[in-house]
Amino acid sequence: MATSRDLSTHEAAFTRIKEARAQALHHARLAQQYAAERRELMQQLIDQGVTQSDIARELGVSRQAIQKMLAV
User: Fold this and answer.
1) Amino acid 49: pLDDT
2) GO molecular function, one example (predicted)?
3) What's the pLDDT tens digit per position in 35-51?
4) In a domain, 55, yes or no
5) Domains of the chain: total
6) The dihedral formed by the CA atoms of 59, 64, 68 and 70, expressed in degrees to the nearest 10
7) What is the DSSP string of 27-51?
8) What's the pLDDT at 38?
9) Residues 41/52, Cβ–Cβ less than 8 Å
């Protein structure tokens, strides 16, 4: 039968792990928000007649990268 281990000596490490996880989740949510904003701005440019190639050139990425960003 497994015995319960005293993990109290590792409390600081567990606390830091929980903090790091919370920060990672927060940053993931921010990344999603920024990606949505980026897509919206690119779509506005396209609606105004700017080509995907023009956007790609300005951002220093490939046209295919722009297509992928818009496809999500």
Assistant:
1) 98
2) DNA binding
3) 999 999 999 999 999 99
4) yes
5) 1
6) 60
7) HHHHHHHHHHHHHHHHHHHHHTT--
8) 96
9) no
Residue 40 belongs to a domain: no
State pLDDT tens for residues 4-31.
Answer: 788 989 999 999 999 999 999 999 999 9
Predicted pLDDT of residue 3: 61
Quote the pLDDT of residue 2: 57
Q: How does DSSP classify residue 61?
A: S
Whole-number Å distance between alpha carbons of 18 and 50: 45
Q: Is residue 68, in this structure, part of any structural domain at all?
A: yes
Residue with tokens 């440019």: 45
Q: Give, in order, the Cα–Cα distances in Å from 43 to each of 7, 38, 48, 51, 71.
A: 52, 9, 9, 10, 11
Q: Which domain holds residue 61?
A: 47-72
Look up residue 10 and give its two tokens: 């590792």
Structure tokens at 24: 């990672």
